[in-house]
Amino acid sequence: MTEFSLPPIQTTARDDAVLKALAGFVMREKLQPGERLPTERILAERLKVSRNTVREALTRWEGLGLVERRQGSGTYLKAAVSLDMLHMPLTLSGGNDLTGLMRTLEIRRALEAEAAALCAVRADEDDLAEIERKLDIMEEEFLNRAGMSSEEDWEFHQAIYRACGNPLFEQIIAAMHELFHRFWEHPLGVRDFGHASFPYHRTMFNCIAAHDPEGARAEALKLIATVEDDLKRGAANLKLSDRK
What we know:
Layout: H1 13-29, H2 40-47, H3 51-63, E1 67-70, E2 74-77, H4 98-122, H5 125-145, H6 150-163, H7 167-175, H8 177-181, H9 198-209, H10 213-243
Antiparallel strand pairs: 1-2
Helix pairs in contact: 1-3, 2-3, 4-6, 4-9, 4-10, 5-6, 5-9, 9-10
């Protein structure tokens, strides 16, 4: 075997220490989701580390859905943090082929059905008002554009995850943002992809508002079933095209 050298493995203790220090700062300052964090320069000065180290730590938090970076505005807290948090990296492999999309859909089915059921049990009046507001916007965009609008649809589902009472749902979904958005990019050449799912957004909300968890789960599953049908239709059309 040809001899070669490898660089030494770098310890992650420093990165973890920065994340723990950031979590401690957020807790001491009692920062709430939606509030802005100090600049990277200030954080680096306080922690006695480089700005690049702070930037990498915030990138990890961003990937976990804990913070949001807004161009020209700063970094904002999206979820509560604590010193005993476990940082779990999520590595996913998914393509725009039928197999990759079906695998992603299986995860969507499990998460969205359960989130809808939990939301039906736990959502309060303010939560329901916000979910319906997002739904109204999504429906208006659908009718105006004659098709599903990715951002409005995403915001509607995010409102449900947010109201289900378990922050892990929103964080996991945020980590899968890119994969989920492939369903709005006319996968497998289906131009009306997702249109059949449109009415189930309203029926799912109606069950959530009625505090009917089984009904909400059933409507979420119907919604996902229409997406699966669209995928199968697209795959069948591609096979026909290949034969011609």
